[in-house]
Design brief:
Elements lengths: L3 E2 L10 E6 L5 E7 L2 E6 L6 E2 L3 E8 L2 E5 L2 E5 L3 E5 L5 E5 L4 E7 L14 H9 L4 E3 L1 H16 L2 H17 L5 E3 L11 H17 L6 H8 L3 H12 L3 H19 L4 H7 L5 H12 L3 H6 L15
Parallel strand pairs: 1-5
Antiparallel strand pairs: 2-3, 2-11, 3-4, 6-9, 6-11, 7-8, 7-10, 9-12, 12-13
Helix pairs in contact: 2-3, 4-6
Amino acid sequence: MQGSREQTPAPTGQSFRVLRWQRRVNEVHLLVRPGVEEKIRGEGTRWHFHSAMELTWFERGSGVRFVGDHIGSFVAEDLVLLGPGVPHYWHVSGESRGVSLQWDFPSAHPFWSFPEARLVAGLFRDAARGVRITGGAAQSVRDGILRVVSDDGVGRLGELLRIFGCLSDGASGEMSLLSGNAFELQDVAGRQRLMGEAVRYLLANFRNPVRLGRLLEITGMSKSTFSRQFLKHSGKTFQDFLLSLRIQAACRELKETRRPVLDVAVDCGFSELSFFNRCFRRAYGCTPTQFRSHKPSGSRPPQPPEGP
């Protein structure tokens, strides 16, 4: 997984673009209009960012979502709004299906000359941390996305504005900030690529002992430069990033298997059960055993915080 700055030009004569995938997030089609598609290279499986805002809906699939310094599990119907320059990546388990809308409306864009635009200005600023949309607002937005996919011309633009209206009307409890810090990376593709290499290595090796020296070899950076750049691009130190990967993997194991907690801990890179229990409690507010033993009773099982 190399990091990169994704180019997001809208089709000629259109103010935003509509992307759809049917199996994998890197096998994407640009929907020029109903019945007319262009295959493009998708960046969803790479640590990347772009100048456009993005609204992404996973109609099917599950995995781990990376948004700024946030690392968290997601399942089908996940809906996330991202601001420009926010580094993100979807680590999907198996096949998936979904739609992304991307638009680039900087401060000088004519959109902001409409008085009604101020109603979404605050939410768009919050998108610098990534916003997860749930509840009735999410359902309205998902319905709007489906209409965007099937419409064309002015009608398609009208549906985008309708989606903006759904977002502005959403209750505060339906909008959750993901990243603990705001991000707006500029054109730093060279170092972004190197950070992508580091993240790829951590994703492939988090179950094993990971040494800083190996990451310095991969990026060709000094210890101080690497530490500074990794924190800038991911919002976490590499140790905290690694710990988050291990906790998320353990969470999935506890949900999906009946393996002993000790085996899960060791397999996810923890050498000591006591340390694993402390880290898990800090992230989820309960022990791994309590998390696993939760029985549906009208309340939700213990959940990790949406931030770091």
